[in-house]
Design goal:
With 238 residues, this protein is mostly helical. Helix content is 82%, strand content 0%. The protein contains 6 helices and no strands. It starts with a helix and ends in a 7-residue tail after the last helix.
């Protein structure tokens, strides 16, 4: 920052030296090279550099190039107007570039903040994927562990139901056994569904649509709660 400020201050002196060399040959306008000097000083040094260069340029032109030379007196009142115009323009240059510099800084900070936020979101997304994969693996492992004892329960329960049906057992006992068998099969299907979810996430299974009997599905679902309704003396109907 100090180097940029020093360069901003040196530019008016450089402009003064070049204009002094060209003065006798070209007799240019007194502010010939000082407007560019003030502009680039503001561009390089911002508000401080631009204001410093404007002040130095004003003093150099006023003393060296505005008649009478080497004096701060003014022969022509219009020269005072040109001094005021230059000071205003130099101040505008400095203010404009300072605003641009601040806007650029805020943009860089916002961009850095956005990149940091994106990196954090990406990291959280990866962690979410890892947790999701661990969850699916957990469900798959639990489902595998549940299927074995369920299979061992279903096989003797089905044999017991067939024996009751062939032995002309009471309707209540047969119905109760049928309900247990139905619930065991439902639990087995739920466990299988958990395995299917893991397969779907792994891309090893395709979804297939099929027609269902909605009325039958409602009756079967409601039948799971018939025993509980009887136990609690609830009039339960479909």
């Amino acid at each position: 920052m100090k180097l940029r400020l020093a360069l901003s201050v040196l530019l008016p002196f450089f402009a003064c030296a070049v204009q002094w060399l060209l003065w006798d040959a070209l007799k240019p306008y007194v502010w010939f090279l000082f407007f560019p000097a003030a502009f680039f000083s503001a561009w390089i040094g911002g508000l401080a550099g631009g204001l410093a260069a404007t002040g130095i340029s004003t003093l150099l032109v006023w003393f060296v190039f505005i008649p009478p030379a080497f004096s701060f007196e003014l022969d022509n009142p219009a020269s005072a107007f040109s001094v005021v115009v230059f000071v205003i323009m130099g101040g505008l240059f400095a203010y404009f570039f300072e605003r641009m510099r601040l806007a650029s800084r805020r943009t860089d900070e916002a961009l850095a903040s956005t990149e940091a936020a994106n990196a954090k979101i990406t990291q959280l997304y990866r962690k979410t994927l890892e947790l999701d994969a661990q969850k699916n693996q957990f469900f798959a492992n639990v489902s595998h562990e549940l299927r074995t004892p369920l299979t061992l329960i279903l096989a003797p329960l089905e044999r017991h139901y067939r024996r009751l049906a062939s032995a002309n057992s009471s309707a209540a006992e047969l119905r109760e056994t049928e309900m247990m068998l139905r619930n065991a099969r439902l639990l087995y299907r739920h466990v299988t569904d958990l395995l299917d979810v893991a397969k779907l996430d792994a891309g090893r299974m395709r979804v297939a649509w099929s027609e269902v009997d909605l009325a039958r599905l409602a009756r079967v679902t409601a039948s799971h709660f018939e025993a509980l309704a009887v136990e609690r003396r609830i009039d339960y109907r479909v």
